[in-house]
Amino acid sequence: MASQSQFYHQTRIPSTYARWWKHFYENKLAFIALVIFVSMCLVAIFANFIAPYDPTLSFTDAIHKPPSWYDAGDTQFLLGTDYIGRDIFSRLVFGARLSLSLAGAVVLLSASAGIFLGVVSAFANSWIDALIMRVMDFILALPSLLLAVVIVAVIGRGLPNAIYAVAIVLIPHFVLATRTAIKHEILKEYVTAMRLDGASKTRLFYHCILPNILPPIIIQLTLAFSTAILEIASLGFLGLGAQAPHPEWGTILSESHNDILFASWTVTLPGLAIFFTLLSINLVGDGLRDAMDLEKNK
């Protein structure tokens, strides 16, 4: 008797996430950006093993030592030292840990509050929806950095307050993304069918709407992460966020910006770290959006 496999051929259909990954992987620029970002995250995680020195340790006999590829450089300090002899490479490595972890905390807070308010706004009565949206419109009407500076000036400077300020600034973006996605899905026929079937709002959201609004929320998470890094660095540069000797990238720039004429590496290298981090995150976000759009338009 012939085996069953000779009569039946089973075709495995990839999951939605697998198809997203396939489209994303085909975008080489986005994939390279993902590799760069993952590498930065690994550097942040293993900072204790990668950095040769403590980021606050000063070498008084090596003040403003140029990077090792300069004629006056020293291989002991790969990227040179700053105005009090601290190793810049070590400070950038530990700064990656601090900057990325702070941005992650900001995104977690803002996403939790923003998605919750977006869901409430989409399903609540019209007056509650109008009240939430007017508050969000007011926050969005102000420049984000200016609003963050005002909040920090009111509640006080420091890392915790900087996190709260940037999180408040980012909440409206999650509210709008969530509310818009839900309002768009509610109008579709499958949602109407579940309503006619007697599904409650809770069941309708978790089992019907939520899986279909994940793409815009995921994209918003990547954009918010890059914005959080930039806002935290800006507050640190202005002296309102992380305070010395914390090796946060914005604080490093603030401490060394007066030395740009005769020790340009102390400003250029932290600036490049911020630039390439933001660039990689934004390219990953663009790649995710393109991959999800390709799958959606099929």
Feature tags:
298 residues, mainly alpha, MetI-like fold, 70% helix
How would you characterize this protein structure?
The chain is an all-alpha fold. It has helices at 16-26, 28-45, 47-50, 88-123, 126-141, 144-155, 159-186, 189-196, 201-237, 249-256, 265-296. The model has no long low-confidence stretch (mean pLDDT 86).
- Which word captures the global form? globular
- Straight-line distance between termini: 42 Å
Beta-strand share of residues: under 5%
Instruction: Note the main sheet.
Output: none
Poorly predicted parts: none
Q: Total strand count, please?
A: 0
Strand and helix layout:
Layout: H1 16-26, H2 28-45, H3 47-50, H4 88-123, H5 126-141, H6 144-155, H7 159-186, H8 189-196, H9 201-237, H10 249-256, H11 265-296
Quick structural summary:
The protein is mainly α and 298 residues long.
